[in-house]
């Protein structure tokens, strides 16, 4: 049921109308209004009463902005009290509940919030202090309305998908400084997804960063940037460490051992409010509460001097160099199976030796990287070595294909100690078990910044088909795919009939269909392109 505010008549207040507790009314103008008993808790109201607060008019207003639109306020500096009037009871309740859940500090003081006994504020416009307050309210409201639109503004919200390698604050800083000064960075994990809030110095820098970096990869084939404007317009950073950084204030502490076990609530609040569509200038708040959520650690401010090979703009922002992975391994302790020493070669075992071919392995593993060479072992034909263009691509394939079922057998994918696959000696023959695909036209990732990097998904029963000739109908496609399993559903894209989705009865059948139909000739100059889809039919 929607909360409704109690109907309370408008009242006129001046700076001397409040007693020590700040919520009683006195004076001749209000003598006909009865006081509420102090023993009775105030009913939910649009007006929030703040105690033990020492702040400017603008700070008072901005204190309420994370929770909703502030329509009026009073700042009683001499009494260290203030009143905030919201446009709805729900917004006021959100603020009171939040402040009651733990201590909130503003300018070194713990601020207390409760519902006021007054349902609405009416200030005297002729009062000079109220005129200044009106200006502050107008300025804060403009900021609120700008943030409510979700940009463009100076704060960007970054999500990283297909995150195979860790991404540090230093990496983000070096990427985004290409477009202007980066003032602050906050990183956090939400729904098992790494995210960051980045505050640029000006709107144009944020706009250019969003325009040019959205959809790009930090490393080849992985760590794709998804960028949108945040609904926050300023960030707070309490500590300089590996989870947050304020480049405008290098003197911030790194946080002691106890603090590193607590989540910085200014960042928790930024995450919560931004995701809920609320708005905040969190630079005014320092909230100290324990949390069972993500552990925010803060560290030293100086940037790490990256090696010359570290170039965030290389290959359309895809790094993919062994030196960069080595640098990350040193700084962030990558898991052993993702370190640079693994190299670009993987070992695939438990293959169905009666059905597997180098071409089949090239096609399936080529979904996750450019396969240069495939070698089925002569004395152990249920195993094969596959060499990728980069170690990162090999790691992506390992991540997605280990323990999948292929041709009736669950395969095992591991990293090989070899750095390349040896071709047969000149004049020798290994019965076609080794193939070189280095110059194959079927490589999916040969173009820097290819859109295929954004469409890497684990094997699933739904396949994405593209490059379909206009004259090819559903019946013909069904006939081709029915050779490899049962078709459950098929659907052409409404806006582009050159693409379609087809769902097989199982993931194993989808894998077999992909291997046998990718590059299938449908017309004289058109070959079918097949990949795994994230969409469900």
Please, could you describe this protein's structure?
This protein has helices at 57-64, 89-100, 128-148, 169-176, 203-213, 265-276, 314-317, 322-332, 358-365, 391-401, 474-481, 507-517, and strands at 12-13, 47-51, 70-76, 81-86, 104-106, 109-115, 122-123, 155-161, 182-190, 193-200, 217-219, 222-229, 244-246, 286-287, 345-349, 371-376, 384-388, 405-406, 409-410, 412-415, 434-436, 462-466, 487-492, 500-504, 521-523, 526-527, 529-532. The protein has 537 residues and is an alpha+beta fold. The protein folds into four domains: 12-148, RRM (RNA recognition motif) domain (Alpha-Beta Plaits, 2-Layer Sandwich), CATH 3.30.70.330; 155-287, RRM (RNA recognition motif) domain (Alpha-Beta Plaits, 2-Layer Sandwich); 340-436, Alpha-Beta Plaits (2-Layer Sandwich); 457-532, 2-Layer Sandwich (Alpha-Beta Plaits). The chain has a six-stranded antiparallel sheet with strand order 3-4-2-6-5-14. Strands 11-12-8-10-9-13 form a six-stranded antiparallel sheet. A five-stranded antiparallel sheet has the order 20-15-17-16-21, covered by helices on one side. Strand 11 and strand 12 (222-229) form a beta hairpin. Helix 1 (57-64) runs parallel beside helix 3 (128-148) and helix 9 packs across helix 12. The longest helix has 21 residues, at 128-148. The radius of gyration is 30 Å and the shape is elongated. The two termini are 36 Å apart.
């Amino acid at each position: 049921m929607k909360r409704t505010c109690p109907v309370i008549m408008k009242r006129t207040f001046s700076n001397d109308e409040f007693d020590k507790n700040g919520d009683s009314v006195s004076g001749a103008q209000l003598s006909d209004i009865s006081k509420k008993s102090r023993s009775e808790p105030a009913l939910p109201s649009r007006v929030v009463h703040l105690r033990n607060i020492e702040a400017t008019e603008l700070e008072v207003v901005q204190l309420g902005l994370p929770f909703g639109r502030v329509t009026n306020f009073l700042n009683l500096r001499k009494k260290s009290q203030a009143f905030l009037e919201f446009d709805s009871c729900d917004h006021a309740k959100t603020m009171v509940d939040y402040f009651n859940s733990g201590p909130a500090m503003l300018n070194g003081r713990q601020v207390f919030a409760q519902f006021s006994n007054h349902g609405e504020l009416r200030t005297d416009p002729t009062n000079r202090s109220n005129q200044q307050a009106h200006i502050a309210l107008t300025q804060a409201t403009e900021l609120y309305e700008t943030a409510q639109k979700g940009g463009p503004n100076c704060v960007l919200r970054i999500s990283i998908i297909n995150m195979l390698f860790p991404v540090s604050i230093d990496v983000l800083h070096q990427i985004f400084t290409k477009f202007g000064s980066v003032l602050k960075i906050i990183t956090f994990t939400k729904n098992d997804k790494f995210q960051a809030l980045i505050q640029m110095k000006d709107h144009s820098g944020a706009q250019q960063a969003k325009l040019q970096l959205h959809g790009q990869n930090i490393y080849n084939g992985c760590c794709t940037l998804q960028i949108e404007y945040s609904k926050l317009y300023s960030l707070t950073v309490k500590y300089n460490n590996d989870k947050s950084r304020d480049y405008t204030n290098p003197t911030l502490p790194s946080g002691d051992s106890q603090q590193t076990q607590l989540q910085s609530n200014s960042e928790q609040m930024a995450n919560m409010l931004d995701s809920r569509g609320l708005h905040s200038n969190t630079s005014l708040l320092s909230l100290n509460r324990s949390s069972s959520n993500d552990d925010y650690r803060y560290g030293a401010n100086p940037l790490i001097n990256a090696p010359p090979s570290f170039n965030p703009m290389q290959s359309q922002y895809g790094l993919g160099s062994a030196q960069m992975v080595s640098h990350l391994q040193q700084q962030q302790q990558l898991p052993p199976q993702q370190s640079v020493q693994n190299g670009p070669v993987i070992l695939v075992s438990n293959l169905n030796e009666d059905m597997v071919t180098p071409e089949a392995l090239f096609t399936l593993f080529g979904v996750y990287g450019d396969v240069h060479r495939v070698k089925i072992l002569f004395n152990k034909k249920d195993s094969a070595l596959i060499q990728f263009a980069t170690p990162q691509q090999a790691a992506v394939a390992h991540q997605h294909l280990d323990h999948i079922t292929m041709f009736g057998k669950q395969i095992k994918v591991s990293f090989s100690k070899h750095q390349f696959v040896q071709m047969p000696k000149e004049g020798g023959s290994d019965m076609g078990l080794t193939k070189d695909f280095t110059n194959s036209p079927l490589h999916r990732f040969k173009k820097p910044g290819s859109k295929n990097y954004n469409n890497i998904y684990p094997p699933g029963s739904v396949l994405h088909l593209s490059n379909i000739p206009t004259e090819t109908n559903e019946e013909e496609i069904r006939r081709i795919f029915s050779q490899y399993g049962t078709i459950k559903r098929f659907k052409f894209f409404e806006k582009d009939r050159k693409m379609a989705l087809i769902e097989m009865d199982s993931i194993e059948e989808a894998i077999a269909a992909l291997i046998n139909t990718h590059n299938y000739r449908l017309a004289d100059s058109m070959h079918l392109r097949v990949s795994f889809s994230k969409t469900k039919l």
